[in-house]
Fold this sequence. Notes:
The complex is a heterodimer. Chain A is built from 12 helices and 12 strands. Chain A has helices spanning 7-26, 35-42, 57-70, 86-99, 115-123, 147-161, 179-194, 210-223, 235-247, 268-272, 284-301, 333-337; strands spanning 46-50, 76-79, 103-106, 127-131, 141-144, 168-173, 199-205, 229-232, 255-260, 278-281, 310-313, 317-319. In chain A, the strands form 2 sheets. A 6-stranded parallel sheet of chain A has the order 2-1-3-4-5-11, with helices on both faces. In chain A, helix 10 (268-272) links the parallel strand 9 and strand 10 (278-281). The longest helix of chain A is centred in the N-terminal third of the chain and has 20 residues, at 7-26. Chain A is globular and about 90 Å long. The termini of chain A are far apart. Chain B is mainly alpha-helical. Chain B is 70% helix and 3% strand. Chain B contains 13 helices and 4 strands. In chain B, helix 1 (8-26) runs parallel beside helix 11 and helix 1 packs across helix 12 (289-310). The interface between A and B is large, with 37 and 36 residues. Chain A: Keywords: Signal. Chain A: Residues 1-26 form the signal peptide.
Amino acid sequence: xxxxxxxxxxxxATLALAAMTAPALAQQGLDEPFxxxxxxxxxxxxxxxxxxxxxxxxxxxWYAGLKKELEPFGVKFVIRDANWNTNAGAQAVTSLIxxxxxxMVVHNPDVQTYAKLLxxxxxxxxxxxxxxxxxxxxxxxFVGANWVEIGERQTEGVVKACEGKSNKIAxxxxxxxxxxxxxxxxxxxxxxxxHPEIKVVSSQAADWDAxxxxxxxxxxxxxxxxxxxxxxxxxxxxxxTAAAVKExxxxxxxxxxxxxxxxxxxxxxxxxSGAFDLDMSYDVPTQAAQMAGTIKWLLSSGAKPGSIKGSxxxxxxxxxxxNADSQTTCWxxxxxxx
Amino acid sequence: MTRIRFNQQEIVFAVFALLFLxxxxxxxxxxxxxxxxxxxxxxxxxxxxxxxxxxxVIGRGIDISLIAALAVPPGLVLQMVxxxxxxxxxxxxxxxxxxxxxxxxxxxxxxxxxxxxxxTLATGLLLAGLGQAALFQLDVVQWxxxxxxxxxxxxxTILGIPTSIVMFAIACVVVAFLLRQTRWGAYIYxxxxxxxxxxxTGIPSRPIIVLQYVVAALIxxxxxxxxxxxxxxxxxxxxxxxxIYDVILVxxxxxxxxxxxxxxxxxxxxxxxxxxxxxxxxxIMDISYAGQNLIKGxxxxxxxxxxxxxxxxxxxxxxxxxx
Lengths: 338, 323
């Protein structure tokens, strides 16, 4: 009995008691009350994806990213490829409205065509998420690049590169009716309004087509060999722009800026080779992750489709010679698909 | 009294000459050697495709699948090299694919007697679909290091002339030789003029028609290689563009009637020059996209209307079976 009086012994005894009872306590874990309804909200739901076309880095990247995030939760993922055909896309959206998936992820070819349809879809109880190219209708969520900012930052880059030079620049637009093209142009105009010294010698649409971009750039460069910069609207198209600059022997002299999804072959490699001086990347895997997050949140929230509306503008990564070598600047489509 | 009659070729040439003159006078920097070369360079691929289309149209057919032949086999070359195959092996595979494609087209039209418009519409979709589904990883197939050196087919200059123009010129000479100097060429004209008479006189119509589509596909593939080399990648979705209409336009505008049996390389060159001059002039003037389409439409309509005024149709020409 005397031994029990010692404080050391008392601690040892308490610890021994605790060691004996601890496993019993751990076996009665606390049930997390929210994950079950979350899983139920997702399992068996259909998410439909309508890109302007598959088979290019952006849409393949979004597809792979969404699939990776949603399928483990039992979400059924269906795809309706509009294959660059606006009518086919509108038909796909129309037929989806009657099929009633839980969520529709839509990539708009222009600001008008799908607008009414998307509104109808939300009235029918389908959440609509618009990616990168929005429509005139504001749906549950827009996830994508801020095109105005892209245009501004690209033009700022060109204006800076033009300091002390001819101040002559050219603009190679995409397809005129596309949100990406029209909003980027607005950004370009915003910056040019502050720089009256800059002269735009050519501002034409190449319709997202590399061959057309090359033809336009060739002609412009022949007329203005002292051109100091080009603002291009998509790296997939501006391969042609860059090829024309290279052919004219002006690589490094004409500052070429563009924007894109940041896929390694289409962005970092081309910046490294000197074809592009600045490529504003909207980082497709991050966009896909944000979209997936939004889908999970919407489905588990129980909010009525159309009752909430928000935007997620993705953070832009300017790719230049300095960071083009880094492993984290760009992404590989092949890795994302694994 | 004899009336002076112009045919469409002459009218188009006159329109081209007029435009050229107006641009030369009023457009700074238009009439320079450099700009002339750029003008030609920009339409070289269109011109080469025009030659392929001309061969088929002279034989009273049409080949809507030409853009698939332009996009898919050259795309395959770039994709195979990207995947580590050698350039010669990839080129050989592409040529075999192209010939097989031409044979299918020809067989459908000559032996199964499917009208050429529908046959090639379907086969073009088939080939483009095959490319998208099975051959390419992405729509735009990027250039890879294994292709180094091959870009000279569409970039750089030979004796100061941009390579793509030289390629167009070579294609012109080859096609002119085929059409005018070989028996095969003479047969095509005969078949295009009157297929039944041609068959009665003992011309092996069916094999000739098959050959026609094989040659057209091969020229299409060649145009695709020049295009890929020129833009350092193969944007295979060019199949979905309106390029095929431009090609038909070059051929018809140049004066090769869709009724067959008429025209030649010169017509394609004239048609190409008109399109090239318009595009170049409008780019220099920085006319907007919509404005360009409007002007293109008006000029083309004028050319066609003038032709129908100067050469009104009669019973005989109406029977020729225009599309």
